């Protein structure tokens, strides 16, 4: 992978790890982990977190773990597990055999809770969720002890065992850590560490009806796996004291260290899984892989390459605080990756028929045209030239305005890789007045590469043979949001926030035949239109659908 250490590693976490290496803080290899909850799909922000963990492990010749935080049976599903593994491998951050599941550590986590109860550091609480919140206090006022805080270890052990056996309904009791209800850090005010959930888990079935909270499970899972540096996004900074408290009370040797880095948000897209779920459920988008979404699946379907995404997150560098990155940076990384990789083809998106009257009706000439002007290794292809071709409707103007140099009555242009043509006649629909056909003549002396210099033309147009061209639908995408804004309250409609022009569908576009054999995810540069990808979801044999990945130049303003 083309990710150079000097652009990524020189940050305070790298220096912390280096200090730990120098002082011999760990007798095991450096190990980081990415812990997604399998309740949705990865997105561009996830790619940044994965990159940070993966590259720091790689810098120290250590190990990178993928561990699923699957301790909530109400939201998680194997569908998401499989998708996350596939997406991480596609991105190029493969964990290899180091794929783990938090649910596999259920016994260790339960035993840890029992240890805390025996040490007088945890207790069963009967307060309702609303009461727990009320007793917790505020940022300026200390909390109030639960009336159940003084229960003996023996009573707590018995009640916790009954919770595990399924003796109580959801919400009847919780297990809380006994820390400090007056702590200035609300996360240390006797946080809930276990709750009752009577629901089948996608891996463990009905074996358990109590499940640990993430803040309790997280450090124990890290310790079991031998993680040395638990790298989290910045919102977990205030949770770090609880992470350290759990490891300290359990006397974990060579305990992992939690450190935080900033979140990365991208303008014009939605990265909240909760919001994306609303868009999917409301049919505002075409599933989690909609090309307008910043999910890895959506970006892949749109036509983004793993290299472009890696280069994008690598180019951001390390950020300490949450930051917003303009989407043009992501597009730039994509253009830089594609421009020398993909072949160019001619595609007419809004066709206008052109008949070359001085060519015989059965005329067919196959012209050699280069595939990529920046990469001669891609060679050239044969393009059929026939009596009837299509050009873009916008490339003709019956009454040309000043500065219009394309085709007009009596004007002459070059057809790319072919000949000069001159418009002699305009044919219109008698009922509507719409232009339906142009009748032109060509100059056989002016074939591209012939050295003809008698006269010059100011425009070169792309075109497609009517006889040989293939028909395809083309999807043109713009940003999904009108502004960088989302609904403020649950249940608020998305309609006022979405760009109504985020998707334009063009039917029956005409493409040169070399694009007809495109497989899903094959990429091309459509001359003058941008970079396009064969849609992996809606393409079918003989009827491809192409998504515009990105325009040739940045047209979005962040």
UniProtKB/TrEMBL annotation:
EC code: 6.1.1.18
Domain (Glutamyl/glutaminyl-tRNA synthetase class Ib catalytic) ranges: 30-334
Keywords: Aminoacyl-tRNA synthetase, ATP-binding, Cytoplasm, Ligase, Nucleotide-binding, Protein biosynthesis
Main EC class the enzyme belongs to: ligase
GO cellular component: cytosol
Residues annotated as domain tRNA synthetases class I (E and Q) anti-codon binding: 460-535
Domain Glutamyl/glutaminyl-tRNA synthetase class Ib anti-codon binding, residue spans: 345-443
Pfam families documented for this protein: tRNA-synt_1c (PF00749), tRNA-synt_1c_C (PF03950), tRNA-synt_1c_C2 (PF20974)
GO molecular function: ATP binding; glutamine-tRNA ligase activity
A GO BP entry: glutaminyl-tRNA aminoacylation
Highest taxon above the source species: Bacteria
NCBIfam families: glnS, PRK14703.1
Family: Belongs to the class-I aminoacyl-tRNA synthetase family.
Official protein name in the record: Glutamine--tRNA ligase
Lineage: Bacteria, Bacillati, Bacillota, Bacilli, Bacillales
This protein's encoding gene: glnS
